[in-house]
């Protein structure tokens, strides 16, 4: 890869990792639903100029229902679930949970869609899921136990289930549509779906400056700019290399939480993160024992 592409990949990992920092900063003042809604609305407003072409508008008009389903599965529901979780979980821990999406994609494809997994990918799936169990068990024993924390972890898993459905749906229904059209259209659809709930559940007390800055960071940087960077990388370096960003998101999520929110990095978080990333490397085909060439990874969902 060119140095500029490596820099773009690192920047994308840093931006998507920062989404968990921003959610943590804004969720308590906005509330989970209002923050998710404002993120989608802000991203839609920033993205609309990118739709200003007849080709993209025609694609969107012809496939509005499918794009709306993607908007629900890949944006609206995950935004709400991760924003809810951010009220209880440290940013770094939420970022680590976000890394399990590729494992769920592989597991669901094998269980329900008849997709075959070879020995390395099966091993990776088992290792990755073991890392999730370690992470949950270890975290509950490191001072974060509580009912709200348990529900927050469930919300993170639920968000990744949504990404899993979105990945399979996109793979089967959206192959003929420009990925950028899907990304932009899905943000507009998510904004429309979340708007009434955002108005209904708007906080009684106006959020402070820090919460608004976090919301704008989520909408403009972590959603709109991130999608532009991601699809640019896909076009230049291909999906196999672009998917390396999956390994950067939890690392940057933990780093930003420690630097800006003084979050502790526990043994459970560090160990769980390493084990999950090893599982992802095997499951997606990026790490192939005995092979010097990486294989094409499994279809992955758009990230948080």
**Unreliable residue runs:** 141-145
Number of domain units: 1
Backbone shape: globular
Please describe the biggest sheet, giving its number of strands, its sense, and whether it closes into a barrel: none
Count of alpha and pi helical runs: 13
Helix/strand/pairing class, anyone? mainly alpha
| Head-to-tail CA distance between termini | 25 Å
Describe this structure in words.
This protein is mainly alpha-helical and 304 residues long. The chain has one domain. It has 13 helices and no strands. The protein has helices at residues 3-30, 32-47, 54-62, 64-85, 91-98, 101-112, 119-140, 147-173, 179-200, 209-237, 239-242, 245-261, 267-283. α1 (3-30) crosses α5 (91-98), α2 crosses α9 and α4 (64-85) crosses α9 (179-200). Mean pLDDT is 84; it is low at 141-145.
Q: Would you summarize the structure shown here?
A:
The protein is an all-alpha fold. It has helices at residues 3-30, 32-47, 54-62, 64-85, 91-98, 101-112, 119-140, 147-173, 179-200, 209-237, 239-242, 245-261, 267-283.
Topology, element by element:
Blueprint: H1 3-30, H2 32-47, H3 54-62, H4 64-85, H5 91-98, H6 101-112, H7 119-140, H8 147-173, H9 179-200, H10 209-237, H11 239-242, H12 245-261, H13 267-283
Features:
mainly alpha
